[in-house]
Amino acid sequence: MALDITGKIIQIMPTTTGTSKAGKDWVKQEFVLETQETYPKKICIGVMGDKTQELKKFATGNEVKVSLNLESREYNGKWYTNVNAWRIEAASAGNQAPEETYVDNTEHTSGADGGSDDLPF
Q1: Is CATH 3.40.50.150 correct for 2-90?
Q2: Is residue 113 over pLDDT 90?
């Protein structure tokens, strides 16, 4: 499922790195976006690989448009959802910030008994 969402970056977490079971190195970073609705929502979004460099163009407080994919997987009877960005761009011209951005990456999951009930599916 692919979506576009616009909002303000309210937090950027540090980069996380590791090595897969196949021996390949990976890098991931997450940020929190707050939507600009009557009842704003906060969404934790991850970027992988070279997309972490795209995130470094922005800072907390910037308005951005994010193209993302939603994906869920089941493990031991629980469902885990990933929200991954594949494009990040300024919501309006001149909205980019200096490259000094601090980002963190921690895996966020939502089990069958947690999360939000206001999803469109």
Answers
A1: no
A2: no
